[in-house]
Specification:
alpha+beta; 64 residues; two-stranded antiparallel sheet
Length: 64
């Protein structure tokens, strides 16, 4: 498995150097605090949605 990951090669960042394309982390690695080797990110991966207040703040009731 590690040979296959190593055969994937490297990603080269213009400013931050080389990083393995495929990385294998075990549970033991994660618990020890090891993380993926990757260039630093200045932006969030996902944009946060804008908060929208409901027009009618009264919650209706169900009639059975």
């Amino acid at each position: 498995m590690t040979d296959e990951a190593a055969s994937a090669g490297f990603f080269t960042s213009e400013h931050f150097g080389k990083f393995p394309r495929v990385q294998i982390l075990t549970i033991e690695d994660l618990l020890a605090g090891r993380t993926l080797q990757m260039p630093p990110s200045l932006e969030r991966t996902f944009k946060q949605a804008e908060r929208v207040e409901p027009e009618n703040k009264d919650q209706g009731s169900l009639v059975f």
